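testing teh design pipeline on a random one, pls ignore if ur not involved
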């Protein structure tokens, strides 16, 4: 798993496959690995995409944050050259 900093918080992510990137954002109390469990990672890789499963702050392997300010995740991800985000929440 890899990581980057956004707003002073270390966020972990896993990259699967090659091709145009699709960033997968999990719902509350889950983690990036949930996308493997439900089959989205395999489906995206088989379709020729690069599936990037992110652990949101305080989830999975990402650092927790103990204040009320949101990390500007969309802006940070776009700065890294990723144009599409997909999210899920139960």
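output:
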């Amino acid at each position: 798993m890899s990581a980057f900093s956004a707003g002073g918080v270390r966020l972990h992510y896993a990259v699967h496959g090659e091709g145009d990137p699709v960033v997968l954002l999990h719902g509350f109390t889950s983690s990036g690995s949930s996308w493997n469990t439900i089959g989205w990672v395999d489906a995206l890789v088989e379709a020729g995409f690069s599936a990037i499963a992110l652990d949101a702050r305080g989830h999975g392997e990402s650092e927790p944050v103990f204040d009320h300010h949101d990390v500007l995740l969309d802006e940070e991800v776009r700065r890294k050259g990723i144009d599409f985000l997909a999210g899920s929440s139960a």
